[in-house]
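Journal club prep, notes for RB
We'll compare a predicted complex against what the paper describes. Inputs for the 1,3-dihydroxyacetonephosphate case:
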Amino acid sequence: MRKKIVAGNWKMNMELEEGLNLVKSINQYFTDKPSVRCEVIVCPPYIHLASVNQILKNGKVRAGAQNCASEKSGAYTGEVSAPMIKSTGAEYVIIGHSERRTYYNEDNRILNKKTILALGAGLKVIFCCGEVKEERESGKYFEVVRTQLEEGLFTLKPEEITNVVIAYEPVWAIGTGLTATPEQAQEMHEYIRSLIKGKYGSVIAENITILYGGSCKPSNAAEIFSKPDVDGGLIGGASLKKEDFIAIVEAV
Ligand code: 13P
């Protein structure tokens, strides 16, 4: 059985104290509830990671970063490397989020480099892919996602790809209130799994976790997660509210 995951991507939200309060209450909730078998991850801004990991040390919730540098170390003012993230106790890093692709011009080549560095540092990667509205409307969405995966991920060796989680996030659904229908999500997740199977074989394809992201909320999560190839979610806005985030995790 592949792993179910719900990860909260806080983006550039939460000052230190409110972020730590949120993490404390989420961690307490899930640590007291062993019946929830889904892996729960919070991805705060870099600057909170070390403090968040102090809180999570003995709990059930894991932490991840939202990005990492494309170099390992050195004179890159303002950057944060994958080994630094690992040294805080974080286990995951999100790579290739559409906001990084759009606002910071991160292309598949850079994302591939970051992925290799992150895996080399011992982190697990949540690799994001997804098409913009025009690409959905013109019917090019399979081709777009295929290129993102081929160029971003498919240079990895089989033993590396097993430390990758894929997040399908249609850009037109992120923060817009528009959600992919469960059928649209399933169609793409099934396609992504077929690409993994073509490249890495059926055992790896069956075991890789594929998350859906884009305006996921308590009212739509259960229906999306009920689809056979949807293994959980990458949650933006709703991960900032304890009750909403917990309800989404419980919908898996
Ligand atoms: P929203 O859930 O706010 O649409 O954001 C999704 C997302 O980008 C998670 O990475």
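Talking point for the session: Residues 44 and 144 are 28 Å apart (CA to CA).
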